[in-house]
Amino acid sequence: MTFIIGEPCIDVLDKSCMDICPMDCIYTGLRKNYINPVECIDCSACADVCPVDAIFPASRAVTEEQRAFADDSDLFFDSILSGREEPLGSIGGSAKVGDIGADTPLVAGHPKVVS
Ligand code: SF4
Ligand code: SF4
After folding, report:
1. DSSP characters for 32-81?
2. Which ligand has the nearest atom to the CA of 24?
3. Smaller CB count within 10 Å for the chain: N or C?
4. Which residues line ligand 2 (CB under 6 A)?
C-alpha cells in the first residue's frame, strides 16, 4: 500500500507534508507533490498535516478521480516526464534531487486553480 496525493494539492503545494515525512519520499513536480509508492512506509503522518486534505491511502481510492490520481502517482515515477531522459524510479529521498520541475500530463493539463 501507499499514500496518494490527490487533486486538491494542485497549485497549493505548500510542502508541509514534506517537512514531516520520515522517509523523504514526497517529491515536488511543478504544480503538485507526488508520493513514491515504493519508498512510502504508510505512516500517514503527511495526511494529518495537509491543509487541503489532499492525501489518502491508496486502499481508499474509491472515486474515479481518486483512482486516476493513484494511477497518476505511479506514472510520475515510472514514465519519462517532460524534459527528462529516463523515468525517476526510486531515488531514495527527495532531498537528493530537489524539485523535479515537471508534472504528469494529468496534472500539467489540469485547469489552473485561481484563489
Ligand atoms: S501538504 Fe497537501 S497541499 Fe501541501 S504540498 Fe503536501 S499534499 Fe500538497
Ligand atoms: S505516509 Fe508516511 S512515509 Fe508515506 S509519504 Fe506520508 S509521511 Fe511519508
Report:
1. -EEE-TTT-----HHHHH-TT--EEEGGG--SHHHHHHHHHHHHHHHS--
2. 2
3. C
4. 3, 20-23, 25-26, 35, 40-46
